[in-house]
Structures are given as C-alpha cells and as structure tokens.
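sry for the spam today, last one i promise. struct tokens for design, 793 residues
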C-alpha cells in the first residue's frame, strides 16, 4: 500500500497538464511525508522534489498548488536533520527557491501563500546553511519576503512569519545577505514595526523586533571584521535607532534590568562608532552623524522637558556626546548654537544636574555660550558650583570637620574656621557634641543654625533698609571690636554653603548681592529703592555746571544704624563725609563722577560699612577664590545669587493674588490679569515665582505675615501692584519699580507673548537693548511715594 501510494503521487505530479490533479498530489505529498516518514523519504528519493518544482513552474497562477508546495517544502526541510537527507539542497538544486520567490511576487496579496512561502524559505535557510543561503539570496528571496511583509503588514501572522524568516537570514554571518536586507528596506520595516508596537504598548512585540537587531549585530561580529558597514549605516539612516532609544525608557525595574542594560550597551557601542576611528571605506560617517543627531533630538522631544534619574542614567552616554558634536559643528560653521539644541537647553541642564562634571566636558557650551548664564537653570548653576568644588579639591584644597554644640555656636565657628589653612578648606563635615548622628543632614542643619545666629538683631552685624525683608552689613556693627573677624567668618560660611549646595537663612539686599558678585552699583540701582534720591543724583548728572549747585562730599542719613554711630549726641540725623575732609571738598565738574559713585553707595547703605563688606569678601574668597567668583558672576543674576545663598522662599499664590492692586489698563477682571495669574500657576514654577518676586520687589522673600504686609518706599506698607502700560507695545519687556512693589506690563496680544516677555525680564535683560525695557512712570511713582508717606495703601 505504501509503495502504491508513493507511485500514485509521483504519477499525479507527472501529469503536468492537469493543475488540479497536481494540487491534490502536492497535498498528498505533504500529508504522507507528515504521517509516514518512510513514504516521505521514498518520495524525496524518487524525483518527487523535481516533479513538485516543475508543477509550481508550470502552473504559477494556481494559488492552491503554490500554497501546498510551499507547505510541503517547509515540512520536509524541517525534518532534514532527523532524516539525514539534504532536502534543502534538493529543493534549491531543483529550482524550488526560484519558483517560491516567483509565486510570492505573483500573489503578493495572498497572505496565506506568503506565510507558507516565508516559512518554507526559513526552513531551507535554517537547515541548508551558508551554501544554500547564497543561492536563496541570489534569487531575490530577501526582497520577496520584505515586500510580502510590507504589503500584508496588517496581518499579524504574516508579520510574525516574515520577522522569523528575516531573523534566520540574519543569523548567518554572510555580508551579502545583510546588505540585501538593509538595501531592500528590512531594517526600516522592522524599525517601523517596533515603533508601532511601542505606540500600542506591546512591549513583547517590540522586543521581538529588537531581537532581530541583536541577531544582526552578533552575526556581523562573527562573520565580518568589525561588522557590515552598510547594515550599520542603515540602522541609523532608516530610523531604527529611534524606537530603540524609546524602548530604553520603557523597561520596568528591577525585573527587566538585564534587558535594559543589554539595550543600553548595544546603543552605546553603535553610538561610539560615530566618534572613534572608522575602518570601512563604505561607512558614511557624515550621513550617520546626521541621522544620529536626528535620533537624539527626537528622543529629547519624547522626554517633553522632564528627565528622571532613570532617564539620565540610561541615556547619558548616548545623548551628551552627540549634542556636543552637533554644537561644535554649528559653532564652527555659523558661530551660533543650533535652534534644536537651544530648545532642549533645560533638559540638557537636567543631565548636568545628575552629573555636574558634564559642565566641564560635553555640556560646557551651556556655560560658555549663554549670555549671563541664560542657558542654565538654577539647578544647573548649583551643579556648576559642585563641579567647581571638585576642581578645587583636585587642586589640593583641604577638608575639615567641625565639632560643635547647639549653643555657643559662634565660638565654635571661630575655633574651627579661624586657624591658618582652615578658612581655605573646601570640604566640610559637621558633628554635634554628644550626638551619634552623622551625614550631610548635620551639615545642612549647621548652616541653618549659623545663619540664624549671625542674622540675629541682638548680634548687631546686619541691618535692614526695607522693613526686615533683606539684610546688609550694619554701620553700627563697629560698636563690637571683633566685628571684622565675624564678617570674615560669615563670608567663609556663605562660600562653603555655595560650594556644597546648601543654603544659609540670610536674605541679602540687592546692593549687597551686587557687591558680592563684583558688579558696580549705578544710579539706576538707587532708582529702584529711593526715587527721590535718584531724582537728586540725576539732577547732578545732567547739570551743565555742577559747581553752581554748591555741593560738598558730605551727606546725611536718618537710618537708625547710621544715627547710632553719629558723633552728635541726641541727633535725629547723622552727618558724615563721603571722603576724608569731605565737608570742605566741593563737587566740581572734574570730580562729579566720583561724587555720584560715593553718594549712590551711601544712599544704598554700603559706604559706611565698606570695611565690613571687604571683610565679608575676604572670607568668601577663601573657600571660593576670586577666579571662581568671577566665573560665577558671569552666569548668575542677582536674583539667582539670592536663591543660591538663601534658598527658595515659600510663596502662596492665592495670598499673592488676594493682596494685589491693579492700575493703568489692567484691572482685577481684565484679560491681562487673568493671563498673568494663569501664567504663574500653570507655566511658572517655584524658581520663576521667586525670580519674579525679586524682580518686582527687590527680594525673593515674603514677610512672615504674607503679602498683606509687604513694605515699600521708606518702610511703609505697599501692596504688590500690576500696572498696565498702554504706551508700550509687545516689543517692550515688563519693568518694575521695586520701591513700590510694582510690575509694569506693556500691552501684549496673547498669554504666550506675556509669558515669554516675563520670562525674558526675570532671567535678566543683559542680552536685550535697553530701549526694550521702556521708561519709568514718573508721575505714578511720585503719587505712590506720597501715598506711602501719608500711610495710605
């Protein structure tokens, strides 16, 4: 019976003119081979394969015949190892591969036939080895499979069969097959499948595609020295890098940590090819660099401005070198930073926060290129200080341990920081006597205790010119013989706090902060705190002949800190000389500028305490040298320096809005007012709130009793005020009158425009023309000053 069955099948296959009979014969061929292997072996050895291929070639339009033939080949080739019969060679030599490729191309929409054809080719390659693979590739099998999968991508089984077959082709380290897969779009197709799978959150399917690239990579390393340059190029140019980087962010930790690290190392190896020496003539480095940059920028877009610790750890070595190369090329060609990097500057700053050393390496352009540190976030500027501390430690700066009690802390500071060499220390650790606790938390607590101790009014080292909101050295501190050494100690403490990313609860005044940063005080600084004094100085500046004013280098002050130092007993006003012999020194056209400079310092409360300021700076420059301070002053604004020293204040937006006045074109219910509060709530964070407070009021802090007790000119109550300016259009930036806590807002046409201009203003306007800031509202300022003087709102 078995012999008869085999003979019947062979005779039927030989009836070349009867396609239906041959189709049934092929069905029998496959079934007999499956159910009775000896009969299948007899068919193979009796010219069955050649007859089967002949039937395929004679009836190319008979889809059922083609389907059964492919299924039979798939089954027979799958059993090749068990039967020890070279089925793959039989099929190949008989022209079977060529016939299946032809059927695949002819019936491209028949996904059942395509699956059968794909699996047949997969079985032949799997058991036939490199020799058979060469024949299959030469007949266009790779292109046929890719085309079939592309046309039937909506069929999951077709996609699965095609991927399995392409993986089988990729396993063998033969460069020609890899090139064919790359050139016919296989890498692009699987990259698209992976992108779709990620979009649908099908991580299993995405990893199935990822396995193809791993197989391709391993095979290249085995078969071709260094890999196949064409395939590597297409991994970048066909966009496969993009879904790989996206997959990197989707691993669940800790259970998928091994998969995460495998993909990370895979990507790092490929990325480094872009920067190391290249040994392949066909390796298009310029093209790959461009594609790599595009992939990284797409990845940054995907993060949407937020970078977690996990994101930073995974993508650090992938992103920052590529961005650095992109920036270097752009600076060389155009002397400007590329817009797509500027767009992601805040995100890149997050990388620097996680690894501060990047600010001296790949991301140093954030420090060097942004005017006034405009590319750096506040956290990145703090990271720069951390990087500076590490640099100073490498240069041999010492570390010290302070052992202190919770009382008598000033005496302990003197004993710890005064010895020779201790003041120049950069590293610091703190321990409290009779306490077993250890760690950075103790150091943080120590800075808070020290700051509170030095700022205590009973110690009389600092005074306030704005109702206690900010501090600056007090002239009356000279009543204490040791006050200079105390100011040096305070400077050291502030310097150490800056280097360690800690804060000190001492919110300094804007003039004092400018002196710390090495900025020159100007008459415009005075206009923000004392409009009347500014008006007087402006008159001196504009006078044709200042000698007609009969002025001398002598001034007066009614501030308690100045009056207490007056040599005149029971005086309500202190009189003192701006320079030695100032009472008899007249102001002339030649010394006018010296007089103006000294008077500005006097009115801002710093002239009488110049010795204290200099002592503070001497102490500051011990842990934080002058060259470090010069670099710091180039990247931080006065408001940011305030936040770095004293920390982020707590601002209640509801309290702020409740105790806000409106004037000009802005009313409580106007569209502009609604925009303003929506921007503060939805678009600005705590840092921007603090900077806006500093920009408008001169300090980032709020009185302990809230915005209702905000003080202004002369120490009187002055609520925060939004003033609408109809005389200024969108080309102007907002301005402020800090002595009246007033924010002047030009006429903007949209909320986005207002948000952008506010951001520019509070970040510092060094990069904008002065005309963009507009002119002050002199009449409104005079009215506000009069109202405050009367005790009004």
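last one done:
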């Amino acid at each position: 019976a078995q012999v008869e069955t085999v003979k019947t099948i062979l005779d039927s296959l030989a009836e070349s003119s009867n396609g239906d009979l041959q189709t049934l014969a092929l069905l029998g061929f496959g079934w007999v081979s499956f159910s009775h292997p000896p009969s299948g072996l007899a068919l193979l050895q009796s010219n069955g394969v050649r007859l089967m291929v002949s039937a395929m070639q004679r009836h190319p339009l008979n889809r059922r015949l083609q389907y059964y033939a492919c299924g039979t080949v798939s089954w027979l080739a799958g059993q090749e190892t068990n039967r020890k019969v070279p089925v793959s060679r039989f099929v190949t030599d008989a022209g079977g591969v060529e016939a299946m490729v032809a059927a695949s191309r002819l019936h491209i929409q028949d996904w059942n036939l395509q699956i059968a054809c794909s699996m047949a080719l997969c079985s032949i390659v799997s058991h036939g080895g490199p020799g058979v693979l060469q024949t299959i590739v030469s007949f266009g099998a790779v292109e046929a499979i890719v085309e079939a999968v592309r046309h039937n991508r909506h069929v999951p089984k077709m996609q699965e069969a095609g991927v399995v077959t392409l993986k089988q082709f990729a396993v063998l380290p033969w460069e020609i097959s890899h090139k064919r897969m790359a050139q016919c779009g296989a890498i692009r197709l699987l990259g698209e499948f992976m992108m779709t799978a990620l979009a649908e959150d099908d991580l299993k399917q995405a990893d199935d595609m990822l396995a193809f690239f791993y197989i391709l990579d391993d095979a290249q390393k085995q078969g071709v020295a260094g890999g196949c340059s064409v395939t590597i190029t297409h991994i970048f140019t066909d966009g496969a890098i993009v879904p790989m980087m996206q997959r990197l962010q989707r691993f669940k930790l800790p259970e998928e940590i091994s998969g995460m690290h495998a993909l990370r190392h895979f990507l790092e190896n490929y990325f480094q090819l872009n920067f190391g020496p290249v040994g392949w003539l066909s390796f298009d480095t310029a093209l790959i660099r461009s594609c790599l940059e595009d992939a990284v920028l797409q990845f940054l877009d995907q993060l949407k401005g937020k970078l977690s610790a996990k994101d930073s750890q995974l993508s650090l070595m992938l992103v920052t070198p590529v961005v650095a190369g992109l920036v270097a090329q752009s600076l060389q060609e155009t002397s400007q930073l590329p817009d797509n990097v500027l767009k992601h500057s805040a995100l890149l700053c997050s990388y620097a926060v996680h690894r501060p050393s990047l600010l001296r390496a790949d991301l140093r352009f954030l420090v060097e290129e942004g005017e006034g540190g405009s590319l750096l976030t506040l956290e990145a500027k703090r990271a720069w200080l951390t990087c500076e501390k590490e640099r100073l430690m490498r240069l041999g700066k010492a570390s010290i341990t302070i052992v202190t009690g919770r009382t008598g802390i000033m005496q302990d500071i003197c004993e710890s920081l005064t010895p020779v060499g201790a003041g120049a220390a950069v590293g610091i650790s703190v321990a409290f006597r009779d306490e077993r606790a250890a760690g950075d938390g103790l150091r943080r607590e120590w800075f808070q205790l020290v700051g509170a101790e030095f700022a205590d009014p009973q110690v009389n080292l600092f005074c306030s010119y704005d109702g206690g909101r900010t501090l600056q050295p007090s002239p009356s501190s000279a009543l204490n013989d040791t006050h200079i050494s105390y100011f040096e100690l305070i400077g050291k403490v502030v310097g150490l706090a800056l280097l360690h990313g800690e804060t000190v609860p001492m919110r300094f005044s804007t003039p004092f902060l400018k002196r710390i940063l090495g900025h020159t005080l100007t008459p415009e600084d005075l206009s923000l705190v004392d409009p009347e004094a500014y008006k007087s100085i402006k008159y001196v500046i504009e006078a044709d002949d200042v000698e007609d004013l009969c002025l001398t280098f002598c001034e007066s002050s009614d501030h308690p800190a100045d009056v207490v130092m007056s040599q005149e007993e029971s005086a309500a006003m202190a009189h003192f000389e701006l320079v030695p012999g100032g009472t008899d020194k007249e102001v002339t056209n030649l010394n006018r500028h010296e007089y103006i400079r000294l008077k500005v310092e006097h009115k801002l409360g710093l002239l009488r305490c110049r010795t204290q300021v200099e002592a503070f700076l001497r102490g500051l420059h011990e842990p934080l040298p002058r060259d470090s301070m010069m670099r710091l002053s180039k990247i931080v604004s006065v408001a940011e320096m305030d936040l770095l020293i004293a920390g982020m204040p707590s601002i209640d937006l509801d309290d702020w809005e409740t105790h806000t006045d409106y004037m000009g074109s802005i009313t409580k219910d106007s569209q502009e007012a609604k925009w303003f509060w929506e921007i503060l709530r939805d678009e600005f964070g705590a840092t921007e709130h603090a900077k806006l407070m500093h920009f408008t009021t001169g300090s980032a802090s709020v009185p302990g009793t809230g915005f209702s007790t905000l003080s202004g000119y002369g120490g009187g109550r002055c609520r925060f005020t939004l003033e609408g300016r109809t005389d200024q259009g969108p080309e102007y930036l907002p301005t402020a009158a800090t002595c009246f806590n007033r924010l002047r807002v030009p006429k903007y046409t949209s909320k986005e425009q207002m948000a952008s201009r506010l951001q520019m203003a509070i970040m510092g306007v060094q990069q904008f023309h002065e005309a963009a800031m507009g002119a002050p509202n002199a009449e409104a300022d005079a009215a506000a000053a009069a109202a405050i003087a009367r005790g009004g709102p």
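The mean pLDDT is 81. ok im logging off now
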